[in-house]
Each structure stands twice: as C-alpha cells, then as structure tokens.
Amino acid sequence: MEVAFNFISFVFFLSFIILLHTQWRKKAKPRRKLPPGPWKLPIIGNLHQFMSDSQKPTHHVLGELVKKYGSQGIMKFQIGEISAVVVSSPAVAKELLRSHDLTFTTKQQFLAIKTLFYNGLGVSFSPHGDYWRQLRKIFAMELLNAKNVRSFSSIRHDEIHCLLAHLRSSSGQLVNVTERIGLLMSSIICKSAFGKVFTGREEFLEQIKEISELLGKFDFADVFPSWKVLHSLCSNKNRIMKAHRKVDRIIENIIKEHREKLESGDCLIDVLITQMHKGGLQLPITHDSIKGVILEIFSAGTETSATTAVWAMSEMMKNPRVLAKAQAEVREAFRGKEKLEEEDMDELPYLKSVVKETLRCHPPVPLLFPRECREETVVCGYTIPFKSKVLINVWALGRDPKYWEDPESFIPERFEKSSIDFMGNHFEYLPFGGGRRICPGLGFGFANALSPLAHLLFHFDWKLPPGDTLDMTEINGIAVTRKNDLLLIPTPIHLC
User: What is the C-alpha to C-alpha distance for residues 372 and 369, in angstroms, rounded to an integer?
Assistant: First the structure.
C-alpha cells in the first residue's frame, strides 16, 4: 500500500514539474505575431470566400480581402490544407524581394506545373540552386546576348510587315486584333528562340491558352494534398494530362527536327541540344530540361507580350484622347520615312508611357507565382511560418492610392516625368516581378509590345465596330487576358 502511495506521489510530482517546465517555456518563448486574416471554416479554410464571387479574377478577390481583413497590405489565409500569405503593399513586397529574397526565392510547384512543365525543369519553375543558376546563365548568354538581341529587331521588322500586309488586305473589314497579335508574337518568339516557325504552331497557341487557364485555377490535389483517394474524382488531372500530351507531341517534333538538322547551334534549342550531347556541365541538361525550356519560352514570351499589346490597344480605343496623342506622336516622329526602324523607337516617349501604364493597369501576370517560405521569417513585424505559400499581388501594388494618384484611371502622363521603371527596383510597380526570380526577358518583352503598336498607329486609323461598347472584362488565368477578343476595323492611311 505504501509503495503504491509513493508511486502515485512520484507521478503527481513529476507531472507538476513537467507542467511548470511547459509553462516556463511558453513564457520564455516569444509569441509569434501572425498576419491577420479572415475567419475560416473547418476543413475548407477560406475557400468559401473565394467561391462566393467566382466571377471575379483571383487577383481582384485577394485585393479586396486584404483591404478588408489585412493589415499593412499583408494577410494570412487558408485554402484547404494550404497556409498562404498574400501581399498587396509595396513596403512588404520590398521586404520580401530585397531583404528576404533568398528565403522566398523557391516557387511552389503545383500539380499543373509539375505535369505541364516537366517537373519544373525549365528556368521559371526550377527550385533555387545550382541547376537554376546554370540554366538561367545559358538562357541569358545564348538567347539574350548582344548579338541575338540585335538580330531580334530584324525578326520583329519582318513579322510586323507581314501583319501590316494582312491588315491592308482587310481594309474596312472587321479584324480580330487579339488573334493577329497573338500570331505575330508567336512568330517572333519562334524565330528568335527556335530559328523558324514550327509545324503545329496554331495548335500550340490553343494549348498555351488552356495551360494559362489551368495555372490560374485552384486544383483539388494542391488544396487537399493528403486526400489522395479523391484526387482522381475532384482534380483537373485528366484535363491537365490531356493538355500535356498535346503539347508534348508538338515539342517532341520541334526537338526531333532540330536534332536532324543540327549544324552551327544558332538558336537556343540547338545550343541546349549540343550541351546535352557534349556534357561537361556541372549539372547535366536532360531531354525533359529542353522540353521545359521550350514550353516556358513560347508560353511566357507569346502570352505576356501579346496580352500587353492587346490591352494597350483596348485602353487607347477606350480613351480617344490617349489614342489621338499617341498616334500624333508616332506620325510626327516618322513623317516622311518609308519604314519605322527599331532605333527610332526612342523618339516615342508618350507611346512608351502608354505601354508602361498598360503594364500598371493590366500586368501580364497579376499574381506572381506562389513562393515557398524556406524558413520562419519576420516580415514587417509579422511572422511568416515555414512552408507558407506567399503570393505578391502585382495588380494591387499598381493600384495602391498611397503611391498612385487616381489609380483606377488610365493616365500615361503619370510616367512622362517619372523615374519609375519595370526593372524590379520600384516595388509599387512590378509587372515583370522582382528579386532573383525577375523575368530575364523583360526588355525583350517590352520591345515586342512597343514596336507593333507604333506600326499599327502609324499606318492605320482604327475604329470599333458599330454598337461595340468595348467590354474590358478580364478572364481568369495565369496571364490575365480580355474575356472577349478585341475586334477593330483598320483603315490604311497615306502620310506625306
């Protein structure tokens, strides 16, 4: 009896000591201050708040939620099993992309990215590390070196003149500007990166639109990764796999054609194939690496530049004052010239401001791809937990009234006497992202949007079809495009 009593006493004493130690640790350890956020439901988290207004693009929904529930432009939310933080403040974006850039440099790989982009083996989605640095270096040296950049201007010139010829033949008729600009950009990208326009380009363009839409959706498998038994029933996996098979077949044909005619290694694909065969790199390039790069170049280069050019034309048609001013500048600068040269584009400061304002109002990728927090980090006084997904709302940054006067209006003049650029140093304006993962082809993309616009304004007058009210509704996707194609009527003009 006495032994039992002593044992029970010992257990109580030990429990008391453990309780004291636990309370001491709680007091000794500073309490984390997590970002504020909306109330959430069991299991689904904040999914109901996204679904309640499914007609709005995700960046709009997140922007409104941060205004309502966030603090200092930062908000924590839960989508199923995924803990995420969204940032809509330039000050917080600066902390993330400059002070803590290395912590947030790895991009989250969702099901669609893993499947469509070959497990993230391209430069955009590969994890931060030696492989990414090696691939980015090859990309910069072989695609964006000085020689190639100069040659791109002649490619743009030839392709733009093909577009102008088509428009002249369609004088007075309704033209699908969205479609024609998409074909133009794809031709420029094809000849710049692949040496020529490949077979199956039109089908590839259709699949790029499908991929953009898939990347802009929440997938059940990503939101509830542990519910594997339901993935086959609730996920977009079948749709993703179907798009992957179509794209993979076209990319295989591109690589096969380049292998059969491999000579001097003029374009990026030839260089990658040569490097794969030669070896000698710190980390070998594989067949899937080349596939990932091809898809990234074509999708990013075509979709973003085309989207920017189409939105710029849309905004000018919606704002006749801006259209008249930009058109007058172009026609005055090139009056008497037979053709517009790339080096003369510096004479178009207002048109450049139109493109910059378009990038502010309609950033091609309004939500930067989610980045994964590699270690628990304090940002602007708030703790970002390890493994959290961080989204930067570029669209919201460009509409912050603390940094932009009358942010909802399209006013290109705001850039005329401003030092703000898109190189990632002004965190209220990040159309191409920032930090280590900033888009490496931002200058190329800007030129691809600016030059076609100059030619379209110089050679044609434009009007809307009768009764068109110019619907500016956006469609959800990783690159946010117009819901309806832009249809306009061109009239060729002849200047002295």
Answer: 10
